[in-house]
Design goal:
75% of the residues lie in helices and 2% in strands. By secondary structure, it is an all-alpha fold. The strands form two sheets. It has a two-stranded antiparallel sheet. Strands 3-4 form a two-stranded antiparallel sheet. α3 packs across α6. The protein is globular and about 60 Å long.
């Protein structure tokens, strides 16, 4: 488990480094979600891919950006450290975004983005945990703050990158995303003095033998428990990521977006989720603290189970919309999709930041980036599976499609509940 902590003045009760990581991740997520907001539209409208092929490319790309963090975490833990990895990853992602401006370099640009994300993603998250010593009660709150940074960038990016892409040309959308990545990289390099020392640097300075320490039995059990949660996490992300895939198509072709004679860009729907995260994160954390005072706060695994079940329930909301659209041929009200996003967002808040915090609590400090990469590895399989699931969008009725998503998500939540006690024994803590 991570034990490092920085020194110096604090901002709002947290180390200064947290806020440099907050804004770095904000700009990186601005670039990622800005690009994702127009990716399916770019493939279907500009590159003229079929919806099925676009869905498969989307799933493979969004999956691979969560596969490479596993290897990026290993490289950072063993060789170059978290700080160099984040810098290298930011440079590669900026290059990839600018390459997407040329149609002929579409796949090359995606390749650079996949490599860059692998270096960046696991090593920015683990640095949040390294700012706090073991047992520091501020850690979960720090990840909630960090998660708000993620979604602040995700909120503005569809509005800016999506509008530029849809209205002025797709290349301008990718260009603005690239500029956002460069801003985040510059901010990160400026704020490095406020971050904790790399694990690699500590090993070289204090304990060269640390790499040779064999894993203890308790460590192995904790890693196995994380592996089980990663497996179940796959179904959550496979369904959640439909927001950038099939639900983006629903927003574009099945939703009435005319308001007072003005048509809202379909990509703007992808700003609803991060906006809701920003609004409801303080409410959720307050609710958890209230539960904690009464001794009724859910464990980490139970919270993640609730997240999966809520995601499944969100898809049930779309069944009446699918029926009415298919029955009379009219476009569906935007309130249906907005309601889905609201319930799915609450589910995300119960699962995603809790999972990030859980990894830094349970992982041995000498391999924390690799295990963070393992956590994102579940998102790789989930995102790839989301592309495969998306191929059924045109093969099934919309009602059947949403029922399928609901069943898959709720099943994952129930499975977490059924194995919660064995997982807690393996983790050797009731808090998890």
């Amino acid at each position: 488990m991570t034990t490092a902590v920085t020194t110096g003045k604090e901002w709002f009760g947290h180390p200064r480094g947290l806020f440099f990581l907050f804004f770095t991740e904000m700009w990186e997520r601005f670039s990622y979600y800005g690009m994702r907001a127009i990716l399916v539209y770019y493939m279907t409208k500009e590159l003229l891919f079929s919806q099925e092929w676009s869905s498969q490319v989307y799933g493979l790309y969004t999956g691979l950006v969560y596969l490479t963090p596993f290897f990026g975490g290993i490289i950072a833990d063993r060789y170059i450290g978290q700080k160099k990895s984040v810098t290298i990853g930011g440079i590669l992602m900026a290059i990839g975004l600018f390459l997407l401006m040329a149609k002929s370099l579409f796949y090359v640009g995606l390749f650079f983005l996949i490599l860059g994300n692998g270096a960046f993603k696991p090593n920015i998250s683990t640095q949040v945990g390294s700012l706090y010593p073991d047992g520091d009660s501020r850690r979960d709150g720090a990840f909630s703050i960090f998660y708000m940074g993620i979604n602040l960038g995700a909120f503005f990016s569809p509005l800016i990158c999506g509008t530029l892409g849809e209205v002025y040309g797709w290349h301008w959308g990718f260009f603005s995303a690239g500029i956002g990545m460069l801003l985040g990289l510059l901010l990160y390099m400026y704020g490095q003095k406020h971050l904790a020392q790399d694990n690699v640097s500590k090993k070289r300075a204090n304990d060269e033998a640390a790499e040779k320490i064999a894993m203890s039995i308790p460590e192995k059990r904790r890693i196995m428990a994380l592996g089980v949660l990663c497996f179940l996490n796959i179904l959550f992300w496979a369904n959640y990521e439909q927001q950038g895939n099939t639900l983006a198509l629903w927003a574009d072709t099945n939703t009435d977006r005319i308001m007072f004679g003005w048509e809202m860009p379909a990509s703007w729907f992808q700003s609803f989720n991060p906006a809701m995260i920003f609004i409801f994160t303080p409410i959720i954390t307050w609710f958890w603290s209230l539960q904690a005072k009464r001794g009724k706060e859910l464990s980490s695994v139970a919270k993640m189970s609730v997240g999966c079940i809520l995601l499944g329930l969100s898809f049930l909301i779309m069944i009446p919309a699918a029926r009415s659209y298919g029955a009379d041929g009219q476009l569906a009200s935007p309130l249906w999709l907005t309601s889905l996003i609201f319930v799915a967002t609450i589910g995300e808040l119960y699962l995603s930041p809790v999972g990030l915090s859980l990894v830094t609590k349970l992982a041995p400090k000498r391999m924390v980036s690799m295990l963070m990469g393992m956590w994102f590895l579940s998102s790789f399989f989930g995102n790839y599976l989301s592309g495969f699931i998306g191929t059924f969008w045109e093969k099934m009725s919309k009602e059947q499609f949403f029922i399928m998503l609901a069943i898959l998500s709720i099943s994952a939540g129930i499975a977490m509940l059924l194995i919660m006690k064995p997982l807690k024994r393996a983790m050797q803590t009731e808090d998890c």
